[in-house]
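ingest -> validate -> predict -> emit
validate: passed (alphabet ok, no gaps, 151 aa)
predict: started
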Amino acid sequence: MNTDFITQVAEIEISYKPAIQPSERLEINTPDKAAKVFRSIWKLSLEHRESFYALFLDRSNKLLGYLLVSVGGLAGTVVDPRIIFQAALKANSCGVILAHNHPSGNPSPSDKDIQLTRKLMESGKFLDIQVLDHLILVPGGFTSMANVGML
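emit:
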């Protein structure tokens, strides 16, 4: 049997390497706490370009890790649900908190923000991964879509 064709198949590697013990993980139980975490990991200025991040939590709402999903321009960024849920599955996450910034400084969710959040919630339902919140960060504060009844 000729097995030469096997050398032309790409290996897919899936890994999650937690840096701390489960007992030491930060519990995220409020939008304020989530906003603090996002602000501590945000790589660019909130006023520069729109970025999108995700936090991944276990069943006890303890932080497993985060992912920079995308960086866009002044008026938007592309968010692929497959990228978010691929990372959620890698980390064996039960919940996701999403965040992006509005360089304009307006923390109100746009129609596109609401549509994207609904799409991500539906995707998460299929995988039993709950979208717990979606924050919109601006330099002077943030909006929690959960707190304003949009989730």
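The mean pLDDT is 92.
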